[in-house]
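Protein in question kept underneath.
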Amino acid sequence: MYWYKLTPLDILMLRDAKPFTPQERAWAGSTFPPNGHTIAGALRALLGEKKNFNIIGSFLCYGKDKNTLYLPRPLGFIKSTPLVPLTWEPASHVHNALRDETQPIPLVKPANAPPEDDENSLVKYQGSEPDFRQYLPYAIIKKYLQTGEIEKEDWQITDGSHEDKPWTIETRSHNTLEMGTRQVKEADGYFIENAIRLHSDWSLAIGIDEEIPTPTTIRLGGEGHRTIMESCPELGEQWQELQQISQHNFQAVNKSIAYLITPGVFERKHRTKDNQITSLCRPYPWEWKIKDGNFVSMATEKPVPISCRFRYQNNSIPAPQVFAAPPGSLYYLNKPQGLFQDDPNSHLHNWRKLGYSEMLWIQYK
């Protein structure tokens, strides 16, 4: 794999998958970081050919002193306190609570977790609450994979680094006037787009199985805004270290946590009662079954809508939406279990080739 960093020269228009038609008071949102379909489309446009890629990412990269890989924060934490499945914490005061055996096991704080007041001992940067990193640098992720822990001080934001949110959202309005007047059209005359602007020294990081002469520029997202593409082998070295630790953890047969670091697309064909075929998405893999006793619980947030386009009779038309588990989701298993998507012979492997459902593994200690 060859690793590159992508530094936008302007804002990025990365529209989400919500249906959008410019009309009165219509809004077009953006999603960030860009998904695998967006990255693949930009690379194909650069090379001028329809080519299939194996993609890792996209992630974030901070390059003020040196290029450092950043991954989304694990979601299984309350502030800096990790959550664990109830069955893994027999000393919990709610251990005997009634629960639905067909659903993921509730998550609780460890019995030895510090009181809430101790959380306020973190350095405060703004307001009455301390700010926490929403993106964690390579060194902290490496320690998390090795030890299964993230220390309190590791959550603190480095002053001025924007590790809570490395970009700002800029709102751009678009007006079309009635012919011969200074009035906005009543129909299809007004809409608003939210654009993404990365903070200084922040870039995107991707790995692909194609060596591309750099530096060069690619056109990324809607409107095709230019982005500098530069080779960055040190990002590949950092990724390789994380992968080696993760693969070692995957070989273990004890309790483990799967850390999702790109949107996870877990889709399955389903036949309805009227014999129609539809696709269903859920926040964890279909092959991981609660009734089997291996998949225990998860920590996740609202889904990420993803849509792309495909060619049909020389026309570009929208593809059906899917809903992905957000990056940072954690999955708790009694022992590691792979994905059907990892099998190169599976039709689901196309999701993995585009960088979706990338996981790192942690041994629970």
Observations:
- Residues 145 and 362 are 5 Å apart (CA to CA).
